[in-house]
Design brief:
Helices cover 47% and strands 0% of the residues. The protein is mostly helical. Bound molecules: heme C (2 copies).
């Protein structure tokens, strides 16, 4: 090949390379000058989208490797272990507001993933710990990998569902200074009983209500844990009751028990009544709670 031929080929190649660049430039310029309709995507934008698409893909791979075991394949969370992420409140700013985060949704996600949550927000709700992922904080991932995870998570926004990941079931609470009506359950309890939610709604006793062994075991628990306040036969007049305001409930009162369906009764014993001396007893375990419930309901015979 002669030098001239080589030169010619080089020029042709150079020109060919210019064609796509020229097309991109023309397209972008075209929009500037009104030749391309404004809602047509310019090549630059298409590239940006493709780039974003790749980030989402990378994010999906990283998510599968690092996050699924705690947050679930579709960000649905693992009950009692780690919260759902595919949640409306996480993307529409409510969660940011709740935790007083000033930087907006994207930076909230980024910060949670990069820095993790060394202190658990609600150990009563979730037992896992959110690990630190960014190298800046001693984790294993680069800044662009964190960005890819954020891009991937933001993808859930469109189909995020209303999930109550952070506020626990409402616990019966007495407003301070509220007048105690003897023979009525805690203020607001009737409403809570009506709309009782998981894991309490519809709970049924594993034991028969006339099982003598269970009644005897229930009596032991009551005498040991409850009688000091509620009195030996549940009338609400135990030795510790005099000092209490509001007074312990009269569990031997038929009207009172009728207002307290079994599942709601179990709920009250398990969670206690905030704002009163009635403590939560769930640490005793479900079995003990059912036994003491059966024993106390036997006084009135209300099923
Ligand atoms: C070992 C379990 C575990 C792993 C692995 C894990 N997380 Fe978490 N994550 C949690 C827990 C628990 C929380 C709640 C932290 C708290 O107490 O505030 C959480 C919180 C979050 C939050 C904040 C949610 C909110 O409502 O405030 C985001 C976002 C998040 N994780 C994303 C991720 C991503 C992305 C990954 C993977 C790179 C990941 N997590 C890996 C357990 C985990
Ligand atoms: C330190 C005192 C104290 C002890 C111990 C105690 N309670 Fe209570 N309990 C109360 C008080 C006070 C109330 C009234 C709460 C209110 O006014 O809403 C109450 C209310 C109740 C109620 C009805 C909820 C309501 O709305 O009033 C039940 C059921 C109950 N207690 C069961 C038990 C059982 C079962 C135990 C033992 C495992 C127990 N309590 C131990 C103080 C106590």
């Amino acid at each position: 090949m002669s030098t001239q031929q080589k030169l010619l080929i080089a020029i042709i190649f150079a020109l060919l390379t210019c064609v796509p660049l020229g097309a991109i430039a023309l397209n972008d310029l075209g929009r500037v000058f009104g030749a391309v309709s404004p809602d047509e995507r310019t090549a630059m934008e298409q590239r940006a989208l493709a780039y974003q698409g790749r980030a989402i893909e990378t994010g999906a791979e990283l998510y599968a490797r690092h996050c699924i075991k705690c947050h679930g394949a579709r960000g649905e969370g693992v009950p009692q272990f780690a919260p759902a992420l595919s949640r409306k409140d996480l993307f529409d700013g409510r969660r940011a507001q709740e935790v007083r985060w000033n930087g907006g949704v994207e930076s909230l996600l980024k910060n949670a993933i990069a820095a993790g949550r060394p202190a658990q927000s609600r150990p009563d709700l979730y037992s896992a710990r959110m690990p630190t992922f960014s190298r800046d904080y001693g984790g294993a991932l680069s800044a662009s990998q964190i960005d890819a995870l954020v891009a991937f998570a933001l993808n859930w926004q469109a189909n995020a569902t209303e999930v109550n990941a952070w506020s626990a079931i409402p616990v019966p609470t007495r407003a301070p200074g509220a007048v105690t009506q003897p023979g009525t359950p805690a203020a607001g309890l009737a409403r809570i009983c009506q709309s009782l939610s998981a894991p309490y709604a519809g709970r049924k006793s594993p034991y028969k209500f006339d099982d003598k062994t269970i009644l005897a075991q229930g009596k032991q628990i009551f005498d040991d844990k409850c009688a000091a306040c509620h009195g030996a036969v549940g009338a609400g007049n135990g030795p510790a009751a005099a000092a209490l305001n509001p007074k312990p409930a009269n569990l031997a009162d038929k009207n009172f028990m009728q207002a307290l369906p079994v599942d709601c009764h179990f709920f009250v014993i398990a969670e206690g009544v905030r704002g009163t001396a009635m403590p939560p007893w769930k640490a005793l375990g479900d079995d003990a709670l059912w036994k003491v419930l059966i024993y106390t309901r036997a006084w009135t015979g209300v099923p």
